[in-house]
Hints:
By secondary structure, the protein is of the alpha+beta class. 49% of the residues lie in helices and 10% in strands.
Amino acid sequence: MARNHKPEDFHELLGIMEELHHLKDLDAALLDALLLQARRLTSADAGSIYLVEDNALNFSFLHNETLFSSARTKHLYTSHTLSLDSQSIAGYVACTGKTVVIDDVYEIPRSLPYSFNHFFDDVSGYRTKSLLAIPLKTTRGKIVGVLQIINPLGKDGESIPFTERDRMVLGYFADNAGITVERALRTREMILRMIKMCELRDPQETGAHANRVGAFAAEIYHQWAFSNGISEPEIKKNRDLIRTAAMFHDLGKIAISDLILKKPGGLEQDEFTIMKYHTIYGARLFENPNSEMDVMSGEIALNHHERWDGNGYPGKIADIFADPVQLGRGKQAEEIPLSARIVALADVYDALVSKRVYKEALSEEEALAFIREQAGKQFDPEVVAAFLSIREVIVAIKNRYQEDSTPPLRYRITS
Ligand code: C2E
Ligand code: SIN
Ligand code: SIN
Ligand code: FE
Ligand code: FE
């Protein structure tokens, strides 16, 4: 990114604002776009975003042009929480609402309340020098997060200090970004509320399960798409769609009787037949053909129990709104949408390693052995290959979204 200071920057800024207001999903797309734009405006090499959640600052997104993308993926899911006080730079900004500009973070005077945390530099070998940290505020002035931008680069790629102009441009930017983040948090809150409704009915479909399946699906898709030469913008878009859509895979269980849903032992055949209809009931919730999110959510809900070998359910159905509706002959291989082939694996893996009312949890090794064995039978072999090649990321996600540590609404806003 070459550094330039031209009036066009302000046009760019306006364009960026428009783009931001169209982004609905909080996770990768939004935070990624925010950081990328903020870095572009200042030619900065790296940056991160912290969100205020449950009275703490959660490290939520990281960019670092100099480090590898695998490192990025790993750090993305590393929970890392700062307390809301003035000891850290981001904490100070979140508490005071002030912008902080530092020319060299290793030379912060001892008289200041905050100091630089070397941890990330130490583990990564990266050298953070100039830093600009700015609060993300809503229209009512509530601070929802902190945007931290690092190491602007000069013409020859050398690290240079931030200018007064950088501070001003990012000030405008952050005002808009705060509003966008708050809106996204509210959307996410609604989504998690829908999942919570489902959880009230079905104790095994927890918010943590939904979060894990969504995150697994996003990462498996990313790996699959990368191996298949899909373009970067396409990957980014689909990755966020599948992440959210996958969280809704079992919403149709809300229409299944408690007697079946909560039955401690195995299901009778007729009970299992009723259970199979959760796919159709789920798909009926996503009716809007003009919404990409609805289309993908419907695809996943309908097809997440189809099998690659054609022995899954609910099979081919002419009209999912027909009453009564009949189960069809199983879809096979690429007749099943990719999103559903991915969620099928993500969901079963998570079900296998979790305890259910009707069964004990398998160990990680047992689950992997089962998945390997089912490549080409229950699962798309390419999806299995993608999954197996990112096992480290899968485990990081598993550890991040644990049943007990996940509050019912992870992005609760306390006002
Ligand atoms: P779920 O518990 O979320 O399980 C999702 C899928 O994970 C299952 O889809 C199945 O493909 C896989 N899975 C889960 N546990 C095991 C396991 O121990 N071994 C193997 N090989 N696969 C497993 P499936 O079978 O179509 O079931 C869909 C849903 O029906 C389940 O969702 C659960 O809510 C319910 N269900 C299935 N079997 C039973 C049962 O024996 N008793 C009860 N109470 N519910 C069941
Ligand atoms: C993502 O990759 O979707 C973002 C991960 C997160 O912060 O939940
Ligand atoms: C980015 O900065 O946009 C990505 C950097 C990385 O892959 O680590
Ligand atoms: Fe299901
Ligand atoms: Fe599930």
